[in-house]
């Protein structure tokens, strides 16, 4: 042994008391260190444990809150249905207006609840719609899942997966589906649960996969999503001006495939048309504008041709880019140039588009644009240059939070023309078909303030303002 502690002191057969003491102290210290290490390891593991415990507790509470949120959303819808039912009864007693063109009171209630939710929670109307749909499915067909959510046994993400899958099942299959899927929800993460739900749903769905595919086909479309730094997704990450240019061209091609048939005049939803171009089989599939846009994209990429009819060939996109005069002159520091539907872009791109690209129409933000801003009460129709000006000013539908591009919207007289509203820039605003109807058929009202600001008032009495995309001079 080489340890100095266990070696007797030189010249002594027994241990020196001082050495002995030092030895004992060392042993005690070593044992203490061991003990401390053990204690601190124990503490560390119990601290981790305590943290995890607290996190799990948070999740349980979040689930309870999510359950309460679902209940409230559903109650809001039921309340809106009551209000709209009463209003419909009053209206039908008061007037004999044709009910055919009107939304029925349940649809109005859903739209109205969705608009109230979107504004109050500051979410998109798509998010509000999906919250309403999930709340309805969970509250009416999935009582066991709701119970598990209230108990914190599943999270909202699990309940959403179950509700989305159940939503596409007929009502009579939902209880069985719920019974089969819930044990997985309590044991797996939402992503695994989704795969499991897909398998179960396929097994339990009474409709053939072919029929469901035909249904899903009706939802085909092309989407463009703006992202930062002058880029946008058209399911390919592209410079924003190319993505928007391509999207606009696809839309124009899709519109040209309507063969002059105006779906709106026929009283159909925007873009619905009866056939697939010249010589179409009258019994053939009906394509919406969205469907034709998706078809045009696929045709162009796969075969390089748009349609057997040849329609759509030679169509160029036309996209507006607003360039402040000073930017065009090469001076920086002023207001940024704006790409219609996207937002600010860098000066160099703006100058290049304004100077060279034939499919981009430049609009100068100059005090003397020469745009006719008002035709007063003489004309109902909005002159083309004012239309363009308003399209750029609004950018999108002017309902708070709606992102439908102004190019796909109607121009609405804020104060109805037949009620004395003028065809003026400050009495016109873009509304998508959906919000146009919301304005005319529900309790939502709107006034236009200076600078193109719209002030909306919800049936609940809450007010929301909607700013124009661009405050142009004039
Ligand atoms: Zn809208």
Supply the key terms.
12 strands; 4-stranded mixed sheet; 4 domains; binds zinc ion; alpha+beta; 3-stranded antiparallel sheet; 10% strand
Brief overview:
With 474 residues, this protein is an alpha+beta fold.
Describe the structure.
- The chain has 14 helices and twelve strands.
- It has 474 residues and is α+β, with helices and mostly antiparallel strands.
- The protein folds into four domains: 46-87 and 103-215, no CATH class; 224-303, no CATH class; 321-360, no CATH class; 372-466, no CATH class.
- The strands form four sheets. A four-stranded mixed β-sheet has the order 6-5-4-7. The chain has a three-stranded antiparallel β-sheet with strand order 1-2-3.
- A hairpin with a 3-residue loop joins strand 2 (231-233) and strand 3 (237-239).
- The longest helix has 78 residues, at 17-94.
- The structure holds zinc ion.
- The site of zinc ion has 7 residues, from helix 14.
Main sheet strand line-up: 6-5-4-7
Classify the beta-strand content into a percent band. Answer: 5-15%
**Tally of structural domains:** 4
The helical percent reads 40-55%
Mean pLDDT: 79
What is the terminal-to-terminal distance?
Answer: 98 Å
Largest sheet: 4 strands, mixed
Radius of gyration: 33 Å
Q: Classify the secondary structure makeup into a structural class.
A: alpha+beta
Total DSSP helices: 14
* Number of distinct beta strands: 12
Spans of at least 5 consecutive residues whose pLDDT stays below 50 are 1-13, 259-283, 366-370
Gross geometry: extended
The helix-strand sequence is HHHHHHHHEEEHHEHEEHEHEEHEEE
Bound molecules: zinc ion
